Amino acid sequence: MCGIVGYIGSQQRAIDAVLNGLTALEYRGYDSAGIAFLDGETIITNKQVGRVQALRDALGDDKTAMTAIGHTRWATHGGVTIKNAHPHYNSDQTIAVVHNGIIENHVELRNSLRAQGYIFVSDTDTEVVSHLIDLYRRSSKTFQEAFEQALGQLRGAYALGVITAEEPDVLYAARLSSPLVLGVGDGMCIVASDPSAVMEHTRRVVYLNDYEFIRAERDGTYHIKDFKHSLPVSRKAEVLDYDATKAGKGDYAHFMLKEIYEAPYTLRSATLGRIRVESSTTKLGGLENVTSQLRYIDRLVIVACGTSYYAGLVGEYLIEEIAGIPVEVQLASEFKYRNEPFSRSTALLAISQSGETADTIAALKKVEDYGCLRLGVVNTVGSTIARMTDAGVYCHAGPEQAVASTKAFIAQVTVLTLIALHLSNGASKLYRPLLAELDALPKKAETILAQAASMKRLAKKYAHYRDFMFLGRGYGYPCALEGALKLKETSYIHAEGYAAGEMKHGPLAMIDPDFPTFAIATHSPLLEKTYSNIEEIRARQGKVLAIATEGNETIARLADDVIYIPETLDQTSPLLVAIAMQLFSYYVAVTKGYDVDRPRNLAKSVTVE
Ligand code: F6R
Prior knowledge:
Glutamine Phosphoribosylpyrophosphate, subunit 1, domain 1; 3 domains; 7-stranded antiparallel β-sheet; Rossmann fold; 34% helix
């Protein structure tokens, strides 16, 4: 989704800093980019449809500035055009604004501003911000006062970066429900939608909370203010633990491939220091401060979106089976508007790779006053969700850049397995076998990755189909849902995920020689039932590509093609199945020549509703 960057410093580096910051934010997905900087007391702007590189090329090498803001836009209000790209201005171009989020009352504000003579040149919700500041500036004592008054009128979600010709030595930024981080360096400040954009300059960061704004100056000094309560905020900078070298693509053709190949490392890193196989113990430091509250939990509601939601569904099976606690998984976008009974003995667990998903944040906000425990399984350290929850377990998967989530799913399911074990207090008969299996999984993951060549061959064979069914039972069911999502988002093939037992209740009608099925048929107590479903599909001339456990000869007779994964427990099978399905989707997308890392219409971090 949209990304913002703003830089102010004592050296003439602002344009490069903003362009590099925008490049670091490219993975979030965008369709146009723009920059505004101060040349003396004049604001100069450049906007381009397409890549940040187009902006770089247009600006050339000789541009210098000390203050600049920039933006990557993912269209929400108004088409992908230069006029809709940010920054947006007031009429005399003395105020420039970049924005990530949605101004929900923009129609009302636009009408009121129009009635007062303001002329709008774009279709965006953002343009109201520059005009609104302008309006308040007519009567305010200072620019800051006008900025604060404007913030008081905006509803919705925003991370804003603002510069003004009136104060060329100042950069303003503000936050409500959209991520914003301030990087603090020697004689400079940089604000951005996520830390990847500030890493080039500093590891010292301050995360902004809702209803806060920053006033940063050229010498690197800054002030934060809570504009809801009109109070100054004093918050120490944190030092980011981030290995920038891990953020590159390395020798891989795409980030998605690199991230799939990180699976063995991801599995190890999610369990590192948390499991001890010899002594059969688990240790989840992130849950230690809520140990006593966890004892009284009689129900867990998991909220998440997309792939994280499917990881949550695997978590439901795991926690119910291993810890015996009833679990309900809800889409965060539904949960936040539902009126359901929610007692204090229910804990809410939010799962999110980015930690910035608007719907998941809203779900957490909804229960703020319920007095219940709010837990998180989050990948991005320091993100909004990580900071909002009472306790949680980090995924430690490292930055995920491809829009399609791969290694984060692996890490989330691993962490949910650890949480299930933790909540079981060692009482489950699965405790020891699961610990041993978690320890063995990285090696098994490697053997799946070693099958890339045959996966490529299969992808070529199946890439021309327009539809795909994904089927699974038990732990294979959430895998089927996730497999279908991965294929449709990377390859634009219509794919449906179903519980295999549901086939006869409707979906079987779709099956014909042009509608193949990806059947998850790994070792499980339900395997024979899955065989019957495969037979039913074959009887209707449907093609079957199965994923099965090594050594299964029956499946070779039933299916057209088989992908084999190493023997594993039913409970850990989603971790290996997912890797195989991710590789398959990746190669189908490559075969079809699509932009694998940035599928059309999608953004990495969905920071608006
Ligand atoms: C799919 C995908 C999305 C995300 C979803 C939630 O591959 O990446 O479905 O899983 O947008 O994002 P997070 O986990 O950041 O909350």
